[in-house]
Amino acid sequence: MIHARGLTRHFRVKKETVAAVNGLDLDVEEGELVAFLGPNGAGKSTSLRLLTTLLPPTAGTATVAGYDIRAEPAAARERIGYIGQGKSSGDYFRVADELFSQGRCYGLSRAEARNRAGELLAMLDLEALAKRYANTLSGGQRRRLDIALGLIHRPKLLFMDEPSAGLDPQNRANLWEHILRLRQEYGTTIFLTTHYLDEADAMAERVLVIDHGRVIADDTAANLKANLAGDLINVVVDEPARAAELAPPAKEVLVDGDLVTVRLAGQATAALPKYLRELYRDGITVRSADLRRPTLDDVFLGLTGRTLRESDAA
Ligand SMILES: Nc1ncnc2c1ncn2[C@@H]1O[C@H](COP(=O)(O)OP(=O)(O)OP(=O)(O)O)[C@@H](O)[C@H]1O
């Protein structure tokens, strides 16, 4: 459904060239739900804009829904939906009218546009809001309207740039219910960016990590965690420096006050009791101890040297 090879986009900024997307290779098959993750400035939005034909590439090729984005951008556009970070609807249009008129813009007949609007209002739980002006909707409702608008022409492939950004946990969960229902009912292929790693972990079948304009990891969240990040041991002790020396073989051992964090190379459930025995034998008092499985954020740290939270704050 999406096949990109060497996709590249440079920008000129004050005589300097910024390689926003730098030789991107990716493949997404029909029906997949793929999360596209990366720190700020990694090139996610630019990649989406290239793949949705909003921006021409500097180099490289891509086919989207079977059409070459350079040679046949209009044909590609007809088959894809794009939900960007901005609002897709005008503030002073009523929800149902906006769906109807955007349907007409896509060439649907009046009857088709009315039917499609009705179907999407039901699908996205917007029926009760059909007569409301878009600017009176809550953040979550407005996001659902954006999705309905992105689906008006029945795209086989939907791109979403940060669909749940700025929503509270309840609205995020509700939005995801709708996204998953959409897949189930229409078999829509979904390619989305998100800063919520828990969301990518739970919902996406595959996770692509991009940094400096290139894909640096491509696998299921479970495989990424198993292969790229190890378990973490945390112990709070009375002699942290000595406890750090006794740590099992690890990628990294960090001491912060009386807390010692041991980042292991892989899954190692047995490492904690063994380490505790060592500490006990050495006369070190352990106040607390736990072993934590890695999260996608740990994968991120391993791959990019940054956690997504740090890069968010940057
Ligand atoms: N129109 C533009 N002109 C100049 N530089 C740009 C332009 N658009 C993007 N860039 C630069 O390209 C790089 C990639 O930006 P992009 O917006 O694709 O990243 P991103 O991964 O989507 O980031 P974020 O998570 O912050 O949205 C950044 O260094 C950005 O400053």
UniProtKB/TrEMBL annotation:
SMART domains: AAA. Residues 2-237 form the ABC transporter domain. One of its GO terms (cellular component) is plasma membrane. It is found in: Cell membrane. One of its GO terms (molecular function) is ATP hydrolysis activity. Keywords: Antibiotic resistance, ATP-binding, Nucleotide-binding, Transport. Gene3D superfamilies: P-loop containing nucleotide triphosphate hydrolases. It holds the Pfam family ABC_tran. This is ABC transporter.
